[in-house]
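Inputs:
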Amino acid sequence: MSFKHPLDECFVRLKDVHFAYGERSILQGIDLSVRRGQVVAIMGGSGSGKTTLLRLIGGQLRASQGEVRVAGSELSRLGRNDMYALRRRMGMLFQFGALFTDMSVFDNVAFPLREHTDLPPEVIRDLVLMKLDAVGLRGAGKLMPSELSGGMARRVALARAVALDPMLIMYDEPFAGLDPISLGVVGQLIRRLNDALGASSILVTHDVHESLAIVDYVYFVSDGRIAAEGTPDEIRASRDPFVHQFVHAEIDGPVPFHYPAEPIGQALLGSSG
Amino acid sequence: MSRAASGSAVLDDRAGEARLILAGDWTLAHHAMLLRQVEALRARIDARVKVDAGELGSLDTAGAALLLRLLGSDRVRTLVDSDSGLSDGRWALLAAVDGAMAERSVPPAPRKGSAIGDVLAHVGEAVAVFGRHAVDLLGFVGLTLSAMLRVGVRPTRWRLTSLVANLEQTGLYAVPIVALLTFLVGAVVAFLGATVLADFGASVFTVNLVAFSFLREFGVLLTAILVAGRTASAYTAQIGSMRANEEVDAIRALGLDPVELLVLPRMWALLLALPMLTFIAMISGILGGMLVCVFSLGIPVSMFLSIIANDVGVSHFIVGMAKAPVFAFLIALIGCMEGFKVSGSAQSVGEHTTSSVVQSIFVVIVVNAIAALICMEMGW
Ligand SMILES: Nc1ncnc2c1ncn2[C@@H]1O[C@H](COP(=O)(O)OP(=O)(O)O)[C@@H](O)[C@H]1O
Ligand SMILES: [Mg+2]
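Outputs:
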């Protein structure tokens, strides 16, 4: 049932994707593609629907219109078992790491291996230590998630996300709340893991400079559409007002600073003077 | 130059031309008094009034807003050029507050509505919410049952560790509280029976009262209500905090089914625990009643036991026990479902925990009443 598209060198391809939470329309016609081996960044303001986009690609939400293709198969036509099988080939790193709080670091990373494979415990142990080593935390296996710093938790989650050697890794704001050093470390890890696994990666982030340094292509999402796209060099040179505002962190531009409100005078004095 | 005095605005028109003298601290601490002065003076300020702010002490945002209210924003804008004695820093604050207050719009129209209309609206809303909950619950029942069937036929996917851990939490740790509470209620029921039945000289039927009520109703009902408070809330909080922490999403993203992983072990744990707790509750309620019978009615233990053995049919016990798994299913279901409804914040975890306790107690009592009706009609 999953046939290969003749032109499909793209691992992920979204065509005219629409999505709404109930009445509230979030995405209105997104076109986006990720080729094998690429690291692609999706940027946009908070609440612009970036996480929603990742959930659509991960098959946790279903597009109301348009098609989402991953690894050649269109998600809306996949049955339950095929969908679960496909998800096993995707790793996802959540905004806050989402480690299982009642399991040690080791067990967190071992979890997908234990669930999805029948490997003997020694093999699982070796695999987990390899993954932890790749993120520089081989010695931290016994710690509980509550004992980790933000950067370490993010790296453990990264190790768990790649435990099954996925074809596609999705990162939801992997840099949020990290100090500049951890930020650089996580950034380099993302690129290295992608290249080492021969996978594709999608990176949702606000951190323009860190991500421009490691990605191959960038999409900007605004008002439910792709507002701009390009390679990092094109983005840096872009004259597009939206991109310019985002890259140079200007307060006012196409994205307004002020949320619509009643005038502060009324709020302060109770009535208009 | 700044005195720690409360601010004041005085209009001085002795020297032929009117001068507005602003003095003291125009700060939040003096807001109420300043507002009164401002309101009193506002009508008398016009374009010819000269402003003298040389004596002005400290000025904060609240004070600046009052000044703007007193003078109007056009007037304030001209102040900096004139010899009003206003420093640049002050002027920057005034300009910022003026900017923020500038976009004036019509105030929102006061909401119209009658008390009766409001009541009806609330009633409608509540009914709609109730309907939504009922539909959600039915949907979740289907989801859980299908997962139970799917997993049931494959013993390799039974999660025994999780089941045992949950059984310990929901069953074993609840034994003391269930036993104690039902013991006390048993004693109270016996007292009630003794008091009322003594008037008819039928005190000895207290034994039947205690045995009937605990075997049929109280044993299972009290246990279910306790478990609803204890376990439904725990299930909601556990799953809810996992949702808030995106752990549930992580489970899904790892290609696993959260219902299978989180709901089924909890469901089975409660399905096993509640009947056992119910049994304990029946025993200890009857013990409580027996204690009262022995000490205050003088009915010997052997007589108490023989009355139960001779007069109380086993069908009462069966009716009571049969309800336990039904209640367990509903309580676990509501607890887990509310957990999955949690969205994002810690506050949401709290709200849904409350809601799950209320809903599960409600459902238990309603279902128990329906069961009592059916049993009565059927003569069980
Ligand atoms: N489960 C949900 N139900 C309803 N609305 C949601 C839900 N999740 C997110 N939203 C709304 O959808 C919009 C996009 O959310 P999201 O994709 O999380 O944005 P981003 O990740 O770009 O900050 C937000 O305005 C959010 O309030
Ligand atoms: Mg997000």
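Remarks. The first strand of chain A starts at residue 10 and ends at 21. Chain A touches chain B through 36 residues (CB under 8 Å).
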